[in-house]
């Protein structure tokens, strides 16, 4: 069933993502009324009517496209945390962030996107990263490469001895323990800055515009689409436990994503306070 869908149904998903943005998101961009913006856990954790309506649209459309599938969406999980458990079940699951970068969306910044990924038993199979205000659709299918508006992209490797450009979890969303781990990136040769929309930061790595990412939170809707996009562009990722981040399990955090394996491992070792660990790991192979 899934193989057949991957062979014949991907264009329908693209159409659903574009329609959700056209109907529920873009008409509200820079048009939000005060009562259409709410806080969830705090002043920086925002949700809008566009988030909720776009997720409802996508939930119905994606389930219709792949009968028997489940949806794990950011807003549905906020309302019912038990819904996250579908990631560990046997049915294929759609992972949805209707507006990734809600803070940017509310402020009128075009750097937001809609994220959709399809997973089965923890394996990421396909992903869509749609930035409607930027008119960019990025897609990836496992084993078939990464694309932006139909053109293939590759992450490449940083220039030798160049300063690493790293986007890290924004301090608005980090604990004191997280901040201590991220502070280990403040070393010569690394230029770290807070991230914006996670989905668009993943895209920058997949394109080779950023070298690495360092994230401290596990929410599958923020990471699933981007992880597949980076992997299909030639990148790499690892948690501080030395294993890949997976959407169907508890992960050791933080985790690092890089344009190539060496970059991801270097950032990972900095995060766990062992800057020479990546070199030792390569020598041991």
Automatic annotation (TrEMBL):
Entry keyword RNA-binding: no
UniProt-listed Pfam families: Inositol_P (PF00459)
UniProt keywords, alphabetically: Hydrolase, Magnesium, Metal-binding
EC number: 3.1.3.25
Top EC class for this record: hydrolase
GO annotation (BP), single: signal transduction
Superkingdom of the organism of origin: Bacteria
InterPro entries reported in the protein's UniProt record: Inositol_monoP_metal-BS (IPR020583), Inositol_monophosphatase-like (IPR000760), Inositol_monophosphatase_CS (IPR020550)
Transport in keyword set: no
Required cofactor(s): Mg(2+)
Gene3D superfamilies according to UniProt: 3.40.190.80, Fructose-1,6-Bisphosphatase, subunit A, domain 1
Entry binding sites for Mg(2+): 74, 97, 100, 222
Catalytic activity reported: a myo-inositol phosphate + H2O = myo-inositol + phosphate
GO molecular function, one term: inositol monophosphate 1-phosphatase activity
Protein name stated in the entry: inositol-phosphate phosphatase
Organism listed in the record: Streptomyces subrutilus
């Amino acid at each position: 069933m899934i193989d057949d869908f991957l062979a014949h149904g991907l264009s329908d998903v693209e159409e659903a993502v574009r329609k959700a943005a056209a109907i529920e998101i873009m008409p509200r961009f820079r048009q939000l009324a005060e009562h259409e913006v709410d806080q969830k856990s705090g002043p920086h954790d925002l949700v809008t009517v566009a988030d909720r309506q776009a997720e409802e649209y996508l939930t119905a459309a994606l389930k219709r496209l792949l009968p028997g599938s489940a949806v794990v969406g950011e807003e549905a999980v906020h309302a019912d945390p038990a819904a996250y458990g579908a990631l560990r079940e046997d049915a294929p699951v759609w992972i949805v962030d209707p507006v990734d970068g809600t803070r940017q969306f509310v402020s009128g910044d075009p750097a937001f996107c809609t994220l959709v990924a399809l997973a089965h038993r923890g394996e990421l199979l396909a992903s869509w990263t749609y930035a409607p205000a930027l008119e960019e659709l990025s897609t990836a299918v496992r084993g078939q490469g990464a694309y932006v508006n139909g053109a293939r992209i590759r992450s490449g490797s940083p220039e030798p001895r160049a300063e690493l450009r790293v986007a890290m979890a924004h301090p608005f969303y980090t604990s004191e323990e997280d901040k201590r781990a991220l502070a280990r990136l403040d070393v010569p040769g690394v230029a770290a800055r807070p991230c914006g929309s996670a989905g668009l930061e993943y895209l920058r790595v997949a394109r080779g515009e950023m070298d690495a990412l360092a994230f401290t939170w596990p929410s599958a809707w923020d990471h699933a689409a981007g992880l597949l996009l980076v992997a299909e562009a030639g990148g790499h990722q690892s948690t501080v436990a030395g294993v890949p981040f997976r959407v169907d399990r508890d992960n050791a955090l933080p985790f690092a994503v890089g344009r190539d394996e060496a970059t991801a491992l270097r950032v990972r070792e900095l995060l766990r306070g062992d800057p020479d660990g990546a070199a030792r790991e390569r020598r041991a192979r």
